[in-house]
Amino acid sequence: MTLYSYVVARDYGFAPNPFYGHCTLATCKPQIRKGAQRGDWVVGTGSKKHGLGDRLIYAMRVGETLTFDRYWSDPRFLSKRPNLHASIKQAFGDNIYHRAGGQWCQARSHHSHKDSTNRANVSHDTHVDRVLVSDWFVYFGKGAIIIPERFRRGKGETIIRGGQGHLSHFAPEFMKDFVEWVTSFGPGLKGEPVEFRRHLARPGAHLGRCA
C-alpha cells in the first residue's frame, strides 16, 4: 500500500469530486493519478489560505482506475458529467474528457473557458489518461477535521505537504495508524466543499492550473 498526501488548494467539489456515491480524482494531480494503484490511499489536507492547514479535507481508497474514455461512457458516472445550467453540484462535475476523431474533447465545465476549450487544462489533465475511483472514502470539505499532532509532527513524519506536489514515502506503521484513524469516522460525504458556494460555477471562473 502507498499513501499519497497533498494540499487541496482549491476545494470546489471538482478535484476531487465526492458526489453521486463515488469520490473521483479525474483532473489535476497527474503524478498521483499516474502512480496510484488499487488499494492505495489518496489524502487531501486543507489550505492555509482558508485556515485549514492542519485539517483533513478528504481521504479515499483507490478501488479502480479508468481511462478518460471509459470514465466518460461508464453508466455509473454519467451523473458526473457537468451541467452548468443545473445545480452547483452538477456544474462541478469532473467527467469532462473523451476522445472523438483522435482528438480530446473537453465538456463545458469548471476547467473550460466560457465559450471554448481551455487548451492548457486539456494538456495538463490528459497528460495522464487515468481517473482514480474510490471504493471507500470520507469527505469533510468545509467541515474539515483537525489532524492529530502525531500525524503532523510525530517521529519526523508528517501527512501535510505544505506546498505543491505530494508526499508518498511513509513508514508502514505510520500509514497503518493513519488509515485506522481515517476509517474510524466511517465512509461518506460529511460536508460540502470549502468553496462550493463562495464562487459561481460558471466556466472560465477561477480556473488557474492545478498542481
Structure commentary:
- It contains five helices and nine strands, in the order ββαββααββαββαβ.
- The radius of gyration is 16 Å and the shape is globular.
- With 211 residues, the chain is α+β, with helices and mostly antiparallel strands.
- The model is unreliable at 201-208 (pLDDT under 50).
- β5 (97-100) and β6 (103-106) form a beta hairpin.
- The longest helix is centred in the last third of the chain and has 12 residues, at 172-183.
- It has a domain at 3-67 and 129-189.
List the helices and strands and how they pair.
Elements lengths: L2 E5 L16 E2 L4 H6 L5 E5 L9 E12 L1 H6 L14 H4 L5 E4 L2 E4 L12 H8 L4 E9 L5 E2 L25 H12 L4 E2 L22
Parallel strand pairs: 1-3, 7-9
Antiparallel strand pairs: 2-7, 3-4, 4-7, 4-8, 5-6
InterPro entries: Nmad2 (IPR041180)
Pfam families: Nmad2 (PF18753)
Protein name: Conserved uncharacterized protein
Note the main attributes of this structure.
211 residues, alpha+beta, seven-stranded mixed sheet, two-stranded antiparallel ribbon, 5 helices, 21% strand, Conserved uncharacterized protein, Nmad2
Helix/strand order: EEHEEHHEEHEEHE
- Shape descriptor: globular
**Strand pairing plus helix content: what structural class?**
alpha+beta
| Number of strand elements | 9
Strand residue percentage: 15-25%
What helical percentage do the residues reach? 10-25%
CA(first)-CA(last) distance: 23 Å
Whole-number mean pLDDT: 92
How many helices? 5
Largest sheet: 7 strands, mixed
pLDDT below 50 for ≥5 consecutive residues: which ranges?
A: 201-208
Radius of gyration: 16 Å
Oligomer: single chain
Pfam family, one: Nmad2
Protein name: Conserved uncharacterized protein
